[in-house]
Structures are given as C-alpha cells and as structure tokens.
C-alpha cells in the first residue's frame, strides 16, 4: 500500500544523450540539434528526478511516442508502453538500465518496422492514484541497415559504410568510349539535412491528400523510394529540382555547375519549397541519393551508357537520317549519351521471393508512373530476368538497357532504308566502387551477355514478339575512331575506318559529319564535314578517311556537356547498300590541381590551393572556383578571380578549410568562366583525429 505522505515523482531534467546515442547509432556526424536514432536498435536516455528517486514497485512509469500531425495507434504512428524489466523485439518498449540515487537510466527500443520521422517522447509517472505527464523531448527515427530485421538490412559492413555513411562520391559521365569521373558532395549529414529530408516527405502530395495514411506508410522503404523519386523533380508537386536540357540557364544555375546536393536542398528549403533551377539526370540522381542515405536506405548512383528512352514501349529506338547523314526529327525516342539513376537496397515483401536487393529508382522526369513523374523501385533482378509485370516500372528500365537501335535513311523519293544496331544500348553500367575511387562495372546485374542463349530466353520471357530483322550482310563494316583523344581548346582528328570483306572492289560515297551535341542526344551546329563522292574500297582491303574537327568551329557552340557527335554514312553505288556509324566524342576539359597546405588535423585550419591552366588561345573572363566538402567546409565557398586568365596561364585560388570530423574526406571543386564551364576536380584528404 502506498503511504499517503509519499511525494509524487517529479522530473527535473531529461538528457537524451545525443552524443553517446549518436555514436552507437552511427548518426553522430548528423548536423541536427535533435537526437537521431535508427529503428530496431536500443537507445538510452537519462532522467533526473527532484526530491526523491524512482522506486520500483511504488512508482509506475509509462512512455508515449508519436509522429505525424494526427498520431493514432491504429495507423501505427503512436504507441503507449510501460517501463518494464526488459526490452521487446517487435514493439516499442522501455526498460530500466541503471539507477544511481535520483538519476534513472532508461533503455528504449523501437520495432524494426517502425515509421520513420520526427517523434515526440513523453512520460507518465504515477505513484498510487496520482499521475503526472512530462514532455521528454523530440527525436528522429531512421531506417536501420545494421538491424537484421529491418527491410533495408545490408549484411556487408563495407557496403553499409559506402552506401549510407559516406558523404562524398563519384558520378560517372562522359561517354561509353571516354568515361569521366565527376566528384559529388552528397553531404547527407550536413547541418539540417535530416530536417530538410523530412520536410520533403511532408511536402509530397500524398501527405496533403491523406496525412494519416502517408505517415502510416513511412515504415516501408518501397513507399519512401517512390515518394522521393517523385519529389526530387517538380513536375507534379513542390519538388526540389526543375529540369532543363536546352542550354538556356541564365535564370538559374547550369546543371553542370552543381558539385553537391547540400546547396540545392538548402535553397529549396529556404525559399519555401520552390523548385531550384536547374537539374539534369545526374543532379536528380545525386539529390535522391543524398535524401535516401540520410533516411537510412543504402543507396548508390548508377550510370547507364547509351541509355534508351523508348516513348512508345516497343523496345526499339527509331532514329532518322537524311541522305547526307544528318539526324532528322521523326520520333521522340532518344539514345542518351549516358543516363543516371539510383539503386537502393531493400527487401520486397510486396513481391514473390527472389526480388530483394538492389532496386532501381529514377527521379528524372521522363514518363509517368501511376499518374506521377517517378520511376521505381524496380528490382534489378527482375530487369535482368525480363519479369516485366511486377511493380514498379520494370518495362521502362528494361528498355533503357536492352532496346535495339534502328537507323532509317530517308531517301529523296520518299522511301526509307533501314540499318539495325542490336547491341548499342545499355553499355558499361557503372557505379563507384566500395571504399575506393575506381569504377565498378555492374552491367552483368542488369543483362546477360549480348547474343547469349540466356539473353534470348529473357526476351521471350518478356513477351517480346520478335527482335527486329537483323541487318543484311553487306560485306562492309565501318567504325569511327579517335586516334589521339580530344582536348578542349585544341583541334582533333576523327577517322572513319572502313573494311571491305568481299573479293570485289566497291565504289562508295561517304558523308562524314561532326556536330556539337548534348548528352541526351540532341544535336547542334555542324563543326566538321566531308562529302566524298568517290571512295574506292579494294578487295579484302581497308580505307581510313580522316576528318579534322577545328576548335574555331566547335569552341563557340560546344555545350556544357562537352560532346561532339560524329556520324558517317557510307552508300555503295551498285547495290545502294547503306552503312551507318556513329560515335559520341567527349571533349576533355583541363585538370584542376588541388594542393593542401598545412597538416590535416581535426578542428585545425587548412588551406587548399587550387589551380587550373587556361588551355584556350583566348583569355578566360569571369573565373571562379566553387568548393564543397562535407566535414571540411561550412557550406559552399566561392572564390572569384578579379583578372582575366591569359592563354597558358594559371587561374589560382586559396580556400580556407576547417575540418570538423576526422577520417577520409573529399574536397570537391568546380571551375566556371565565360568559355570553360563545369570543370570538376577533387582531392581526398585524410584528417587526423584530436588527441585523446
């Protein structure tokens, strides 16, 4: 029996122990003022009572957690549970961990399928019939890839480090023949990033339509993945980024100028969730990667070279050329030089067994899915096996890596000649390697080897009626080669290498054209042309025809994608056979050199010296360096140069750094000027920890 004069239990302070919980939950680097923990894993809080301490058997403690605007136990957004002697694995629970006088340490644990988000924690303390409620504070709950019962569980520790904790990375651009490593600062643990990611969830249209249902579904990474895929673009909502592909960026920021997600997300949050201008596929993918990693879902950016955009879903990309080899309008189908999306690791309990693991998610607005511009999650295993009827959007991604390419040559009499290229699409599918800055080729995850029996089985399984009729053998082959590479500011040569595999001499016409282009396949002005009416191919012989591409022709119209598209059309006079060869050439920018001055130690000032040599024959004006680096800089730093940089001279800047955290960090740099834009560089910096 409780004595009548016993004092009520009065809470004096509550310590949510941000630092120690952050270490055990691997959230200590998150720049949040709140406690951030992962679901399915215990965390500790310390209660200090006034007057007297907690007495087991006399005092009763119970906790309440709730998330969302209208929390209820029915929707799984609220839970009431007592403090007991031990934790439970499948429900919210709390247990006494230790007591020292008036101090009481409690261990709390969420179930591994709890809803993620911002929670309020309160306590009810009662002695006999007397009870009082205390507000203990707020905390943020995330997915937990370290918890075996979580649907985002990833077994390998190195992969968890790479795909959840690593804040910098590399995105692959360029072309299949010249793959370019572009550094990116994901910065998912930077100040207020986790709050911004939760704001993104609270801004999605499904939340506004039904807040209870939306918050209730936030325990499912499949649902979260679709929401993030839709919200990173702004085509149907208050999404983060506006896309643009026409090289007209004066009212915003060129997609090539971004070097990190943090500045983009901060601008979106700061200006009332208005879309940030502008993004293209790698920017959409990188921002999605930041958000998903921040929320605790293992995620990586993937690049597919020669990526198909099939608008009529017939698994064929139709392109049209005139008789001189110039690309013509006639179809909305496209072959993108490269295309980026993300893969996220999760279980798929909504599907039959065998489809857990990497799921493709594409936030670039291309086609609608269930009425919204989003794509995925598509199980990569289903894409490889041709299982197109499963959720979500598998036919679209399947075509991106498997479509056949047909060139139609439009004749002056209205007829058309067809050439088929069945093994062009879906090349060198790439992502950054785990724990290293080198490329990992994951093409084999998406498709079987071209021409193999298994590949044909997959197409039959995908209910593809037939492949396009194979190209008739002409006895001639043609390839485009780049003997010495192509450097911005310099002339360069390309050659059409033609081989006659017959015993007869062949008389041909060769039309050989170079045009500047964008990475999504759109072409611009001509920058080189040959029309040779009499090309003689000796029996069983070879012919090499060069074409010089002059800087004075391409320099003023080169897009920020740095692509020159070369097309060669060979017509044999006697048989009227046509052969098409095409190649996208990446024009390489100069290298940025980064030198670190000082000893890299935590919380000790460093200086980065950054230089770039002007490779052009004219001065560079309006030069600036932009620098980012999670754990190295406070946000984005911009250094503008006052004077023009003359040909052959160095653009140079020094940037102060203040490393906040120890370990391997990546300093990411972008250079902009009137004639050179989107030049990227990075430097890894190992920061020594503070002495203990």
UniProtKB/TrEMBL annotation:
Catalytic residues (UniProt): 281, 339, 362
Binding site for Ca(2+): 402, 404, 450, 455
Xref: Gene3D superfamilies: Immunoglobulins, Transglutaminase-like
GO biological process, one term: proteolysis
Chief location category: membrane
Subcellular localization: Cell membrane; Chromosome; Cytoplasm, Cytosol; Mitochondrion
Annotated SUPFAM superfamilies: Cysteine proteinases, E set domains, Transglutaminase, two C-terminal domains
Cofactor requirement: Ca(2+)
Keyword Transit peptide attached: no
EC number(s) from the headed UniProt entry: 2.3.2.13, 3.5.1.44
Molecular function, one GO term: protein-glutamine gamma-glutamyltransferase activity
GO cellular component, one term: nucleus
Span of domain Transglutaminase-like: 273-365
Cofactor info, note text: Binds 1 Ca(2+) ion per subunit.
Signal peptide: none
Family: Belongs to the transglutaminase superfamily. Transglutaminase family.
Full protein name: Protein-glutamine gamma-glutamyltransferase 2
Organism: Alligator sinensis (Chinese alligator)
Lineage, uppermost ranks: Eukaryota, Metazoa, Chordata, Craniata, Vertebrata
Gene name for this UniProt entry: TGM2
